[in-house]
Amino acid sequence: MVIIMNLIYVTISNEEESLYIGEKIVKKRLTACANIISDMKSIYWWEGNLEKDNEPILILKTIDENLGAVMAKIKEIHSYDNLCII
Amino acid sequence: MVIIMNLIYVTISNEEESLYIGEKIVKKRLTACANIISDMKSIYWWEGNLEKDNEPILILKTIDENLGAVMAKIKEIHSYDNLCII
Amino acid sequence: MVIIMNLIYVTISNEEESLYIGEKIVKKRLTACANIISDMKSIYWWEGNLEKDNEPILILKTIDENLGAVMAKIKEIHSYDNLCII
């Protein structure tokens, strides 16, 4: 059986928050599962400075029907004001 | 030279199996290479319970022509009955 | 605000080079950020032999407008002659 899935990629402040967000979304059955890659180094501009930080990646797989609800839920509970969700 | 590649993303039970599947597929020259991210935490429903587990990710890159054969090979040798291949 | 982003995935020889390339590209403001997954095992053919190696993954997110410049910059400074950029 082939189902068309969207793969969502979002960086999170730390592992605890990535587990929190992942669990919330899977619990609500908006995605079948959540995958968390904890060891990731990020390089980015912040307030005029080039920063390097450890940011876990949260990867979610969901069907078209749930995509809007998953994005809304991430924005609602994520600690960042400026989010990059791919 | 630009070649259109498909990126295949599949979670595996453990590192040993991810190396086994990756090697089998690269040996058959169905993909140029296999990439394995071992340290990944998965959250998912299993038989009514919310489970947390370590599941390596196997990433494969292949041309359209080989996509069917790669998917068939993964299904054939993967230990899971229910597979999520993106 | 929704912006259409391209996610670029390229494997690098080691962590030092992945940080070097990531920083160069973010400094030139060609991408908002660079994400580096250091712990990745690669299986590939090299000069007739099946090789296994550790290769960090560099993930870059950029808008259509910058895609060409990012690809050109990676090719310019990457140590590999044969690159696989997805």
TrEMBL record, chains A, B, C:
Cited InterPro entries:
Ion_tolerance_CutA (IPR004323), N-reg_PII-like_a/b (IPR011322), N-reg_PII/ATP_PRibTrfase_C (IPR015867)
- Any one of the GO BP annotations: response to metal ion
- What highest taxon heads this organism's lineage? Archaea
Q: One MF term in GO for this entry?
A: copper ion binding
Which Gene3D superfamilies does its entry note? 3.30.70.120
UniProt xrefs under SUPFAM superfamilies: GlnB-like
What does the sequence similarity comment in the record state about its family?
Belongs to the CutA family.
Q: Note the PANTHER family from the entry.
A: DIVALENT CATION TOLERANCE CUTA-RELATED, FI09726P
> What is the official name of this protein in its record?
Divalent-cation tolerance protein CutA
What organism does this protein naturally occur in?
Candidatus Methanobinarius endosymbioticus
- Taxonomic lineage of this organism? Archaea, Methanobacteriati, Methanobacteriota, Methanomada group, Methanobacteria
